[in-house]
Amino acid sequence: MTTHQYEITVIGGGPVGMFATFYAGLRSADVLLVESLANLGGQPYNLYPAKKLYDIAGFVESNGQALTEQLQQQLEHFNPEIRLATMVTAINQLDDGSYELETTTGTILTKTVIIATGGGAFNPRKLAIDYPPSLEETHIHYFVRDLEQFRDTRVAIAGGGDSAIDWALALAPIASEVHLIHRRNEFRGLESSVDALKNSRVILHTPYLISDLRDTDPLTLELKEVRGDNIETLTVDHLLVNYGFMSDNKQLRNWDLTLDRTAIAVNSQMMTNRPGIFAIGDAAAYPGKLALIASGFGEAPIAVSQALGLIHPDMRQALHSSQLYH
Ligand SMILES: Cc1cc2nc3c(=O)[nH]c(=O)nc-3n(C[C@H](O)[C@H](O)[C@H](O)COP(=O)(O)OP(=O)(O)OC[C@H]3O[C@@H](n4cnc5c(N)ncnc54)[C@H](O)[C@@H]3O)c2cc1C
C-alpha cells in the first residue's frame, strides 16, 4: 500500500498555522494541516473568543472568534486537507531526508514540516474530582461535537465563560433541562450572551461548585455553595465541563530541535536546526521576536516559500497574490 507523501505538513491550526496553510495553497503546494484539538483557531478561538483585537493588519477591530472565522473562510478557498483531533507526537527523518510524523491517529509522510504549535497542544482543564475514566465515554464531556446527542436529555454544564454560555444557549431548545453551574454570580461572557442566558430556560446554579459526583446512571452531582454551607443535589444524564484549556509543549523536547527557552530557535528563513523543518508563530524564537499574531502572519510566507524552494529548487519565488489566486 502506498501512503501519500505531502509536500508540506503544518503542525498546529492556530491563526498562524491556518494562514501558513492558506499561503501554501496559494503557492499550489500539496499541504496538510494537523491540529490536536477538534477545532481550528488556537489561542484566539479557544482562550479569548470575545476579546477585542486591534492589532491585526487591515482590521480596525476584530475578536478571537471573528478572526478565526475569517481565516477559515480564507483557508477553504484552496480546500486543503485538514486533520483535526490529531496530535503529532514524533518527527522521524527517513533515509531519503523526508519525514514521517507519528500522530495519535496514525502516521503522516511529508517532505517538509512547518511547526506552528504556539504555546503547545491544548487539553481541556478537567474536573477536580476523581471519577472512573469510562464516564468520559458516556456521561462526562469536555467537547461538544454534536448537539443532537443531548436531545431530550437532562444536561448540566460546568463553567462560566463564553463557551459554557454558548453551549447552554445552544442546548436550551434541544435538551429537556439545561443547568449551568458556575462558581461566581457573574459570568465572563459577551453582554448580549449573558442577557440571553438570563432570559432563557437555562437553570442557573451560582455561586456553586461540583463537590462530588456519583457514578450512577443517571449521574448524581453534589453542588456546594462557594463561601456558604448550602448543598444541592442534581440528577442529570450528561455533564459538560468547560473550564478552559491548558497548553503543554513538552512534546517539543523530544523532537531534536534546538530550543530557545520554550520556543524553537530559527534563523531569518524560519529554519530550525533540522533540515526541512521550519517553525513559525509563538513556537518560533529569534532575536527581537514578538509573540503576536501579526508577527506569525509575516513568518508564514517565509517558511512556505523556503519549504517550496527545497522541494522545487527551480521554482520562482513568491509572486503577488493576484497572480496566484484562482
Ligand atoms: C489572553 C491573550 C490575549 C492575547 N491578545 C493578543 C492580541 O491582542 N494581539 C495579538 O497579536 N496577540 C495576542 N495574543 C497572542 C496570540 O494569541 C498568539 O501570538 C497567537 O495565538 C499565536 O498563534 P499560533 O498559531 O502561533 O499559536 P496558537 O494560537 O497557540 O495555536 C497553536 C495550535 O497548535 C496546536 N498544537 C500544539 N501542539 C500540537 C501538536 N503536537 N500536534 C497538533 N497540534 C498541536 C494547538 O492545539 C493550537 O491550536 C494573546 C494571547 C492571549 C493568551
UniProtKB/TrEMBL annotation:
Q: InterPro entries under this entry?
A: FAD/NAD-bd_sf, FAD/NAD-binding_dom, Fd--NADP_Rdtase_type_2, Ferredoxin-NADP_redctase_2
One Pfam family name from the record? Answer: Pyr_redox_2
**What is the E.C. number?**
1.18.1.2
Q: What GO molecular function annotations does the UniProt record carry, in alphabetical order?
A: ferredoxin-NADP+ reductase activity; flavin adenine dinucleotide binding; NADP binding
Cofactor binding, per record: Binds 1 FAD per subunit.
Q: Which residues form the FAD/NAD(P)-binding domain?
A: 7-307
Enzymatic class: oxidoreductase
**Catalysed reactions listed for this entry:** 2 reduced [2Fe-2S]-[ferredoxin] + NADP(+) + H(+) = 2 oxidized [2Fe-2S]-[ferredoxin] + NADPH
Note the SUPFAM superfamilies from the entry: FAD/NAD(P)-binding domain (SSF51905)
Q: Where does FAD bind?
A: 35, 43, 48, 88, 122, 282, 322
Under the heading HAMAP family, the entry gives: FENR2
For this chain, the family text in UniProt reads: Belongs to the ferredoxin--NADP reductase type 2 family.
Name recorded for this polypeptide: Ferredoxin--NADP reductase
Taxonomic lineage of this organism?
Bacteria, Bacillati, Bacillota, Bacilli, Lactobacillales
